[in-house]
């Protein structure tokens, strides 16, 4: 199999000096020191697991013979979806937001997992299901754009409304450009359906600190003022540098009920 990239595993991150380590494991905390004094940062630390929880979550994402991580199937309609036997999470976002890169980063300790991409224009967009041992499934939803075809909208809506084992939806937002109109359409849909979701800011290595701070503060404010179902803390990730990937693995493990307790760090 392919070797996993550097910093894909916590053991590699723990060898870094303290400030870099914080930047990789808790990217939002790393930003705190650049905020104006008095800025309310309570929402920066809602989910703040300790090392033991991070390690337990990582073990779930590391495949071996007794714990296979596999692509299961693709579906264009709900009746083609695998039976809803396990807790499930799904990832949605605009095309090009970095969704397949992030899923590849999450599964980088299971290098045999193929994260398929279907970007050819006109190619049918599918929901791709991955099974993580006997613990949970992760669904890669088709990327949306403005002018999403009706059958696509119907597939996504049907999935979000009908999937009873869906524990959390991860809505990806581009860290360089921030919230866009099409992202707001997704937010409105999730709010209307009343299902729990969380926002993930991608490609943070590509945004300057100023742009990143602006987008983070804007989104945290937006979430606070305009949403009911959104988790108060924003997750920041870079699939290139692995920032936030370990924390996100831990949050996935948590929301799928696979971390009985999350002790604070
Ligand atoms: P998708 O359409 O949402 O699946 O997006 P992709 O994962 O294919 O990413 C779209 C583009 O952004 C590709 O050129 C990726 O290499 C790039 N990209 C994705 N994630 C990151 C990241 O974390 N950092 C940087 N610098 N580039 C990224």
UniProtKB/TrEMBL annotation:
Record organism: Platysteira castanea
Taxonomic lineage from the root: Eukaryota, Metazoa, Chordata, Craniata, Vertebrata
Family affiliation: Belongs to the TRAFAC class TrmE-Era-EngA-EngB-Septin-like GTPase superfamily. EngB GTPase family.
An annotated GO cellular component: mitochondrion
Cofactor: Mg(2+)
Start and end residues of each EngB-type G domain: 85-258
Gene3D superfamilies: P-loop containing nucleotide triphosphate hydrolases (3.40.50.300)
Identification of the protein by name: GTP-binding protein 8
Entries under Pfam families matching the protein: MMR_HSR1
InterPro entries xref list: EngB_GTPase (IPR052279), G_ENGB_dom (IPR030393), GTP-bd (IPR006073), GTP-bd_ribosome_bio_YsxC (IPR019987), P-loop_NTPase (IPR027417)
Keywords carried by this UniProt record: GTP-binding, Magnesium, Metal-binding, Nucleotide-binding
Record NCBIfam families: GTPase_YsxC
GO MF term list: GTP binding; metal ion binding
Membrane-crossing segments per the record: none
